[in-house]
Design a protein that fits this description.
Lambda_DNA-bd_dom_sf; single chain; Cro/CI family transcriptional regulator; globular
Length: about 80
């Protein structure tokens, strides 16, 4: 679940934080994806209109690892 989609659905960061069961400052740390445990909660809070899809998290994790590997393998010249 993308953070921007959840934010759009709930309309404000305050409402999103309340629905997710977290304090407002936590929202600012989420990044591109809602943390998985919160995504499940938001799916319920949105009556299924927002959907937790584990495949998105798997793909995102793989992309980050590839990015990190590419960064580590770059020369420092």
């Amino acid at each position: 679940m993308f953070t921007k989609d959840a934010l759009h659905f709930f309309g404000s960061k305050t409402k999103l934080a309340t629905a997710a069961g977290v304090r407002l400052p936590s929202i600012y740390k989420w990044g591109e994806l809602v943390p998985e445990a919160r995504a499940r909660r938001l799916q319920i809070a949105s009556d299924g209109k927002l959907e937790y899809d584990p495949k998105i998290y798997d793909l995102h994790g793989r992309a980050k690892r590839v990015e990190e590997l590419n960064h580590e393998n770059q020369s420092s010249d």
